[in-house]
From TrEMBL:
It is an enzyme of class 4 (lyase). PANTHER family: CARBONIC ANHYDRASE. Pfam families: Pro_CA. It comes from Candidatus Methylophosphatis roskildensis. One of its GO terms (biological process) is carbon utilization. One of its GO terms (molecular function) is carbonate dehydratase activity. Belongs to the beta-class carbonic anhydrase family. Zn(2+) binds at C42, D44, H103, C106. PROSITE patterns: PROK_CO2_ANHYDRASE_1, PROK_CO2_ANHYDRASE_2. This is Carbonic anhydrase. Binds 1 zinc ion per subunit. Its EC number is 4.2.1.1. InterPro entries: Beta_CA_cladeB, Carbonic_anhydrase, Carbonic_anhydrase_CS, Carbonic_anhydrase_sf.
């Protein structure tokens, strides 16, 4: 109950800030939302995309799931939560940026790399979306320590999601037209640093050199 009470106290601070000090923002938001960016993030409690980016209410449309994965396009898929969110963000909200935000010490990727995903009812099938990332890492870094392999798979998993985004025809068309831009971000929890994927160098590089989040 202590945690719940803390959350309620947090809402009271939120209410005071936005409904008392900055009423203009919510006067605008009550008429609808108009975010320009969609962030696909992990459900990990340490990786809150709004907190990490300093976003205000209404700034970002957020989808969170285990290991920040985007499944490939599958017409008529059953209970397709992520595709439904993508469809709404792209076709209804007209977002201009899609950011896949991965992170260090990801439990979903750890389960994938360690093979423990096969012992679960739902997680195994879900993180299997990134199975080709695991295969790539094991082929390229076969003798490296598990921690290094997991970090490589966390970043490779981001690339899998970016590739899968391009299987959605209404995303691919907008990317090719320059109306939507795709971004791969990696939050290094241990270092407190944000990295972004640079396609030209096929590498993750500091988003803000010398700075921590």
């Amino acid at each position: 109950m202590k945690d719940v009470a803390r959350f309620i106290a947090g809402f009271e601070r939120f209410h005071e800030k936005y409904f008392s000090e900055d009423r203009a923002l919510f006067e605008q938001l009550k008429h609808g939302q108009n975010p320009k960016a969609l962030i696909v993030a992990c459900a990990d409690s340490r990786v809150d995309p709004a907190l990490l980016t300093g976003a205000e209410p209404g700034d970002v449309f957020v989808v969170r799931n285990v290991a920040n994965l985007v499944p490939p396009y599958e017409p008529g898929g059953s209970f397709a939560s992520v595709p439904a969110a993508l469809e709404f963000a792209v076709l209804s909200l007209g977002i201009e940026h899609i950011i896949v935000l991965g992170h260090g010490q990801c439990g979903g990727i750890r389960a994938l790399m360690g093979g423990t995903d096969s012992q679960t009812e739902f997680i195994g099938k879900w993180v299997g979306i990134a199975r080709r990332a695991r295969e790539r890492v094991l082929a390229e870094l076969p003798s490296k320590p598990l921690a290094l392999q997991e970090r490589a798979c966390e970043q490779a998993g981001i690339l899998v999601s970016l590739e899968n985004l391009m299987t959605y025809p209404w995303i691919a068309q907008r990317v090719e037209a320059g109306a939507i831009h795709l971004h791969g971000w990696y939050f290094d929890i241990a270092a407190g640093a944000l990295m972004h994927y640079e396609p030209a160098r096929n590498a993750f590089e500091p988003a803000a050199p010398g700075a921590a989040i």
